[in-house]
Design a protein that fits this description.
about 140 residues, Ribosomal Protein L13p, Chain: A, two-stranded antiparallel sheet, about 30% helix
């Protein structure tokens, strides 16, 4: 009788991937990156173990949003104090902090647990072409 394989944290071998966001649609890119961060692209995927890989996203400032999302999509944050609600449109956030737009899209597709936070820590997003992870020898990933 065959038994189900359950990965252990020591069994996981992590790779580094680099993704160019130039001209890519935000939601499609975020869902594919979330699958890599979770480890769903690996045969050893186990739900309760972080089996995902590291992902570097470059050219975040050149991401594409469909429709009128630049003007209509709104991101909210709250300080926890009365009257502490802040809002910013996707267009303004893309001009000031383009990394944050991709990071929030991917974060929304990951689990809202400690495991999800450890998955998100493996995501590195940069506005331009340069990144400080050349020593990890990332492999280019095509989506």
């Amino acid at each position: 009788m065959a038994t189900t394989y359950s990965a252990k944290a020591a069994d996981v071998k992590r790779s580094w991937f680099i993704v160019d966001a130039n001209g890519k649609t935000l939601g499609r890119l975020a869902s594919q990156v979330a699958a890599v961060l979770k480890g769903k692209t690996k045969p050893i995927y186990t739900t309760h173990v972080d089996t995902g890989d590291f992902v570097i996203i470059v050219n975040a400032e050149k991401i594409h949003l469909t429709g009128d999302k630049l003007a209509q999509k709104t991101y909210y944050s709250h300080s926890g104090y009365p009257g502490g609600l802040k809002s910013i449109t996707a267009g303004k956030l893309l001009k000031t902090k383009p990394e944050r737009v991709i990071q929030m899209a991917v974060q929304g597709m990951l689990p809202k647990t400690q495991l999800g936070k450890s998955m998100l820590s493996k995501l590195k997003v940069y506005a331009g072409e340069k990144h400080p992870h050349a020593a990890q020898m990332p492999v280019e990933m095509k989506f």
